Amino acid sequence: MRAALIGLERRPLLAPANRRAGHCGGCEAGQRSTMFLVGLSGGIASGKSTVVAVLRELGCAVIDADVIARQVVQPHSKAHQQILQHFGTEILLENGEINREALGNIIFSQPEKRRLLNSITHPEIMKEMLKQVLKYFVLGYHYVILDIPLLFETRGLTRFMKYTVLVYCDPPTQLARLMKRNGLGVAEAEARISSQLPLDEKRKWATHVIDNCGDRESTRRQVLRLHAHLEDSLHFLWARLAVGAAVAGLGGLVFLLIRHFIS
How far is CA 175 from CA 45, 108, 138, 182, 199, in A? Predict the structure, then answer.
């Protein structure tokens, strides 16, 4: 599906090609009572954190997969122990936590190591994300934004998303930002960028694109338009809550049980 370009060439928010503007595809009255997921992604140094900050200011429910990824590898966790078995203790900091920079240097240059690390961490990350999605469902949120850096690399996740949003910037801008932010040389920065799918490739799979090539205010305006598009169906929220009230007790119980057994 071709992306709806949010702000590219200073254009306003457009709906995806097979959906008319201002209408959430498939969100008829009978369907808007169901919470939906929005996948948000980008590339290294594309400016996704800027977009997330604006979404949080707007009160959106955002689940940050990168934050969860840090949590699931804390000392004494299952993933932490498995990582040490395969990568050794030389990747540890003095406090016992994993040195992300040292581990990053390994996986960026060795694709097989990157796949191994993903096989260890992804199941744990998915468990925690599921718990948080259930939490927002019980709290009555109409949609949840899943901030997943590798959303388009791990294509299996996109089938769970009603919409996918890509934070985009052109390759020269991405390279310059990464070099400045991380103090890297050209070769190092290019190696890190090449470890991910090119942003132009990801754009083919996104339903909406936020162009972050310009200044912060331009990006903010695009995020506001995206938010308004997602909020379009919120006037049906009372219907969802009315239906949800009948199963609130059961839903809360299921959530607590899942939280207990997954933890």
Answer: 8, 16, 42, 11, 12
Q: Collapse the DSSP code of 47 into the 3-class scheme (helix H, G, I; strand E, B; otherwise coil) and give the result.
A: coil
Listed residue (165, 169, 172) closest to 212, CA to CA: 169
d(C-alpha 125, C-alpha 63), whole Å: 11
Residue type, 72: V
The three-state secondary structure class of 38 is: strand
Asked if residue 3 lies in contact with residue 164, where contact means CB atoms within 8 angstroms, the answer is no
Return left, alpha or beta for 116; rule: phi > 0 is left, psi -120 to 50 is alpha, else beta. alpha
Q: State the maximum Cα–Cα separation within the chain, in Å, rounded to a whole number.
A: 59
Q: What is the pLDDT of residue 165?
A: 97
204 with 3: CB under 8 angstroms? yes
Alpha helices in the chain (DSSP H): 48-57, 65-71, 78-87, 100-109, 111-138, 171-182, 186-194, 199-203, 216-231, 237-246, 248-262
CB 107 within 8 A of CB 189: no
Digit-coded pLDDT (tens) for 74-120: 999 999 999 999 999 999 999 999 998 899 889 888 989 999 998 99
Classify 39 as helix, strand or coil: strand
| Environment class of 188 (CB within 10 Å of its CB; exposed 0-12, middle 13-18, buried 19+) | middle
Q: Which of 235, 151, 157, 147 is nearest to 197 (CA)?
A: 151
